[in-house]
């Protein structure tokens, strides 16, 4: 379908923009240019440079407002804000205000006189400007400055006590009318409790662990999320702390038979006879390549196998081999045994003795003089193995060590130099992609800050000339990891703390999903019929990662509403489910949860579930707990609850039956959560509670569908979440429609102080 292009000329600038897109964000364009035409429209009386900023923002609405800007934003942010008011573009206005607040101190010529002359006295930018001027004047103590002669200078003399830096407060603070405190606003509108992300950065919490230790509850952490929910539900029912004796904790799942203290173990003392024979070892290495080779570059196959043949061909030459190769070899064998041996009754995974031996023999990589890329690959292998056995902090520590080495090696850059050949550059890009994907995933699962900011990474996507599928797989993985970074920084960072910011962050993330949805569904389509044959394990992995990101973005709403349902937060928050925007976000969270379970069920039916790599297990937990919570919050949200839960437990039971103790713990804790909620339902009489928009009767969705029956094809949600015949993902158009339909008024309410935030 051809685009409806609007031709605009402002001063010397000419612009061509999509009419529907610009009309969606600006009433000026929606009302002034309602009909398609091919004429060029002239706009006079407005600054061309600020229009240039507006159309640049429109082209890339995922621009980060929280980063420092360059020109022309430094000089024109205030003018751009004024333009946003003229063209009635509230989303652009919010972006401009954030940019101005972040960068005002860097502007070469202060915009203060311009704001005083043009901005309304009660506008947020004027109020921020006045406060900023007064703060600076109080610091200067009467010395000459660029603020001399401005009206706001007098405010410094009238202030009682010290004046704070206004940048400590966010946009929502400056939107509150003058003379209205947060408390009085709250009292004036008690029915509109603030809808915030209780899992965001400033609401960090700790939980008791074994042996009297305390564990940090990371913001986006899956484990922390589950523990928060289980603790809250248990304490609501019993009034007592949650017993921790039988719960899942990092590093306490498997007994590796080693305390981490290195024995006097050298290469010469290693008994090579304990290693598998050549044929079986080759089978194990090939299994690692089959399971991980497309997703990660854990080793360079050609180079590694040459050393493999040397090792098994002539033991007299072993002393000439790289000391790090033995370690790498043992780790890959450990992976191979874990993949090949499907059922284990041992207290440790198959092959763990090889991993322990590798760690005992690990040289000091700081002092070891060898190829840095080889060292990074060994560390990636160690980190992934630790992640598989639920030693997540240790895994993150190792991957950060690898990141540090990579930064010093420069493989995070474009690597353009006459001294670098193409083969080496491709190798580095493959290794960096592995490192980047693992670090983003591990940081998210722990809920800790990212090691490297996106703006410092300029590595192009790796291109494998002889393997187009791998090229496409890595590109999608990297794009999903970039979205994961955005979720981590915005939804769970400072951007996620307040109402308008949480909405902006969520809307931006949904737009990012729309950018990769087509590529994912076209290049990695999977059948939605559970009887489909030949499902691609790679495609399933990518779709699972994609939908987990959607759940991660939207599940703070579930946590907030569950808090309210349990009496741990303002009861009026549940009324927000009557808002179409809020309900749509909850529905897309559940829709992705359903699709995760569908994919895992297909993999289960075809014997393709991962019993050692953690990705399927993470997906099963993410989807299941979301459905359990939603069914407690509002019975009309979940269609055919038992259907989805039974399928999810079937997946968890299958993984645990293969010797995965982590899956056993996760299944146990989810069932414990269900049982506790059942007791609460009976005690509180929740069986007939529903907060569906429009007062829907109990047991029906908005379209009247019985909630105990499987939904008709395409009937989930509100229509835009219907399934396509051959994919498990929303189309770009559906995601953009959802992002653009989110109503900021559903979220934007008076700000409360941090002390009022509910954990």
Automatic annotation (TrEMBL):
<dbReference type="GO" id="GO:0005634">
    <property type="term" value="C:nucleus"/>
</dbReference>
<keyword id="KW-0238">DNA-binding</keyword>
<keyword id="KW-0804">Transcription</keyword>
<dbReference type="GO" id="GO:0006351">
    <property type="term" value="P:DNA-templated transcription"/>
</dbReference>
<keyword id="KW-0539">Nucleus</keyword>
<dbReference type="GO" id="GO:0008270">
    <property type="term" value="F:zinc ion binding"/>
</dbReference>
<feature type="domain" description="Xylanolytic transcriptional activator regulatory">
    <location>
        <begin position="395"/>
        <end position="468"/>
    </location>
</feature>
<dbReference type="Pfam" id="PF04082">
    <property type="entry name" value="Fungal_trans"/>
</dbReference>
<dbReference type="InterPro" id="IPR007219">
    <property type="entry name" value="XnlR_reg_dom"/>
</dbReference>
<keyword id="KW-0805">Transcription regulation</keyword>
<protein>
    <recommendedName>
        <fullName>Xylanolytic transcriptional activator regulatory domain-containing protein</fullName>
    </recommendedName>
</protein>
<dbReference type="InterPro" id="IPR051711">
    <property type="entry name" value="Stress_Response_Reg"/>
</dbReference>
<dbReference type="GO" id="GO:0043565">
    <property type="term" value="F:sequence-specific DNA binding"/>
</dbReference>
<dbReference type="GO" id="GO:0045944">
    <property type="term" value="P:positive regulation of transcription by RNA polymerase II"/>
</dbReference>
